[in-house]
Amino acid sequence: MKKLEQAALDALDLKILRAVQENNLAPQRVIAEAVGLSPPAVARRLQSLRESGVIAKDIAVVDGHAVGRPLTIIAHVTTENERLDLLDAMKERFARCPQIQQCYYVTGEMDFILILNVTDMAEYNELTRELFFDGGNVKSFQTCVSMQNVKTYGAIPL
Question: Are 114 and 135 in contact (CB under 8 A)?
Fold first, then answer.
């Protein structure tokens, strides 16, 4: 994974980023009015922010309950071996799994924290077999079931 250098952003870039983090579907003319630029200038800056990787992705946040996937699972995974090739294989396996919404390689007592979205515990049980038992290099894992998702995404403070 390529490390992104910190971009040189001016005050107008930051205003634009705040606006699109709030509403990515806002028309460029509305953003332009809010930040004090012309719509073509906003379009150029947005294109530059996307090309440089500052805006990593344009996505819709879907409510899991509304689409029949109400269960959020947080799994703490500890590896058996921290050999780089084995860790890379785990990262790849976790990144390919569509039920894993977020994956963090962390310091501390565990090695990975996974945020998963599943329909029910039966689906999660099947995933544990695939990801943790069959996949290999997992010493142990702990599961937390979210009782309520209070905040699942947020804007980067700018």
Answer: no
Query: How many CA atoms does the CB half-sphere of 89 hold within 13 Å?
Result: 14
CA distances from 126 to 10, 72, 93, 138 (A): 48, 15, 15, 16
Rounded-to-integer distance, Cα 113 and Cα 143, Å: 10
**Cα separation, 144 vs 142, whole angstroms:** 7
7 has pLDDT over 90: no
- In this prediction, residue 6 carries a pLDDT of 76
Give the sheet arrangement for strand 71-79, strand by strand. 100-105, 112-118, 71-79, 138-145
Task: Please give the pLDDT value at position 8.
Answer: 87
Residues 6 or more apart whose Cβ sits within 8 Å of residue 47: none
Q: Tell me the average pLDDT across 10-30.
A: 96
Percent of the chain that is helix, strand, coil (3-state, to 5): 40, 20, 40
Distance CA 131, CA 97 (A): 9
Q: What tokens were used for 30?
A: 């509305």
